[in-house]
Amino acid sequence: MSVVYLDHFSLSRSPFGSAPEPALFHNASGHQQALDWIESRVAARAPVLVLTGEEGIGKTTLLRLLRERREGAWAIALVSAFRAHPGRVLVEARDLFGLSGERDGPALAADQIRRFAADRQAQGGFVLLMVDDAQALGVEGLAALQALALDSRAGGALTLLLAGRPELRGLLNAPELQQLQTAQNAHAVLPPLGSAETAAYVAHRLERAGAREPIFDPGAMQVLHYFGLGVPRLINIMARYCLMTAAAEGVTELDGPWVGAALHEASAAGVLSQLEELAAAEGLAQAAPEPATAATVSAAPPEDAPLTGGGAAVSEAKAAEPRREPPTGRPAGERAHRPVLRSDALRGATRADAVPPGAAAASVHGSVAKSRPQAPPPRRRVGLGLSAAVAILVLGTGFAWLQGRHTETPSPGQATKPAATLAAPGRTALRPPDQRPAPLPSPVAVTPEPDVAALMQRALAVEATDPAEAALAYARAALRGRARAAWYLGQMHETGSGLAPAPLMARLWYAAAADLPSAQQRLQALSAADGTTGTPRAAIPVFHARLDSGGSEMIWHQPQGATPARFRVELTGPAGEPLPAMETAVPGLIVRFPVGAWRVTAIGPDGSESEPSALARMLPADD
Q1: How far is Cα 131 from Cα 124, in angstroms, rounded to an integer?
Q2: pLDDT digits over 282-319, tens only?
Q3: CATH 2.60.40.10 holds for 388-617
Q4: CA nearest to 76, candidates 299, 291, 293, 287
Q5: Cα gap 583→600, rounded to integer Å
Q6: Domain 29-189: top CATH class
Q7: Out of 149, 235, 510, 589, which could bridge 523 as a Cys pair, Cβ 3.0 to 4.6 Å?
C-alpha cells in the first residue's frame, strides 16, 4: 500500500507509521523535559517514578529512546504490561535483564533481580526497570512490583519507572499499594503537542523520511493539529491518510482546505475512528519485548501496513460539527476525555465546547485559521455513513467462496462501472465442461444487493486482521463503480500486502481505475516491465453471489502469465438453459439476471484463448 504514496512524494520510508519509532523522535519541549527528568531521577537513585499520558501521546517511544540512549551505561529492562500476565511480570523482567532462571515464579524472579541490582550498585552502576502500560497490571500486578521496589535489601539499587494512561494514578491510590504511593518520588505528565509543535513534528518526520520540499503548508498543519488534538499517534493517522489520498488523486501540495475536506469526510464517516483502533492494535502488537538482554536496541520499524480509508468519503449533507482544539498548555492533571477519534456527530455530544454547526475545521488557540475549510469540495461526493453492522450483514451470508480465499485492498476515487458486453456471435452458449473438478458447489442463498459505502467500510474494519475478506469487499465495491477500490486492489496485488504479489492482477485492477492519475502511473510502470507473451492461463473462480435484485455476481482470479485483454464469461440459467456469454476487461462481472452456472475464458491481446476455467455452479440454498 505504501509504494505509490512513497514514490509520489519521493519518500524513502513511511514517515507516519503506527509502531513507536525512536529513530523518528522529535524533541518537543514536554517530551524532552520528561526524558531529562527521568534521567536525572535515576541518577539520583529514586526508587519509584511515575509517567502518565493519554494513549498515543508517545510514552512507549520515549521509553525506547531512553533505553537506546543509556544502553551500556545502565542495565535497563522494558516490560510491556499488555503482553505480560500480572503474575509473570517479574519473570519477564528477569529474562530481559539477561538473568538465567533455573525455576520460574515471581518470588524467585524478584530475588534474582534484587541481587542483580545490588551487585550493579556495588560497582557504581544503575538498574532501571520500566513497565509500559502499567495500568494494565491492575492492583495485583502492581503489588508484586511494590515488593520489589521497596525491599530494603535493594537499598536504592533499582529504580522502578511505571508508565501508563492517566488511570494509573487512581490505581496507585489503592490501599494495597499504600507503600508504593508513599515511596512515589515524583510524577510527570506527558502533555499534548501545541500547534507549533505539531507543525514541527510533522515536518521533522517528513524530513527524516526523505522529503526535500514541504508537503503540508501552514494551514494544513493547523488542520492536522485540530484533528489530531496534539496527540502524535492521531497526527500520524491523519497525516498518513492525507498522503495516501493525495497520491491517489495526484495532489502534491496539501493545503488547509484540501486537508480539512479530506479529514472532515473521513471523520464523519467514522473511518478515522477505525483507523485509530487499528493503529492502536498495531502499536500493541509492536509492544512485545525484544530478546531477553539488558538494554536491548529496539527492533527496526515494520513496513507500513495498509491502513487507509481511501474510499471513505461522506456527502456534504453529512458533514459534521467539529470541536474546538483543546488547550495546548494543561496543568499537571489528566484530561477530562480520552482523545479518541469519533465520527463528528459523536464529537459534538462528547465535548461541551463543540463548535456550532457550520464552523470551520481548523482553529488554533481558539482562533480561526485562514485556510479553514467550510465544506468538502464537490470532488468528494460519496456517502459512507452506514454502520459496520450493516456491512457485516452484507458480507455475512448469501454468497459462496470458491477454491480458497483470495485477497485485495482499498482505494481512492470513483470510476464508471466496468462494462460487460455481449460476446461475439457464436459464443452464446456454455460449451461442454472440461474434465477438471468444479469449485466447491456450496449452496448460495439470496443476499441483499450490497451498499458500496458499506463494502468499503467493512473492508477497512477487517483489513488488518483478514485481508482476504477485505479484498473481497473491495473487489465487490470496484465492480460497482468505486475506482478507489480498484486502485487499492492494484496496490495490494502489487505490494503483496496480505497476499502473494501478483503484478498481473495489479494491472487488471489499475486498468479499472484508469481515471485516477496514480492508477495510470502504476499501470504504465507495470506494463512497461511486463515482457510476458503468449496465451493467458486459465482463470480461477473465487466468489459468486445471488442478489435479491435478481442479478448474479461473479469474481475470479487470473494467475501470473500473459495478461488478458478481456474475459469471456459463459453462463447458463437456473434450469440449465444457455444464456448469452458476456465479455469484460476486469476479473469480475455483475449481471441483472439469475445464473445457474458459469465459467471464464481469458483472451489475450492477439486473440489467443486460455482453457476455460472450472465450472462454478450457483446451487440455490433452498434446493
Answers
A1: 23
A2: 555 555 444 333 333 222 233 332 222 233 222 222 22
A3: yes
A4: 293
A5: 9
A6: alpha beta
A7: 510
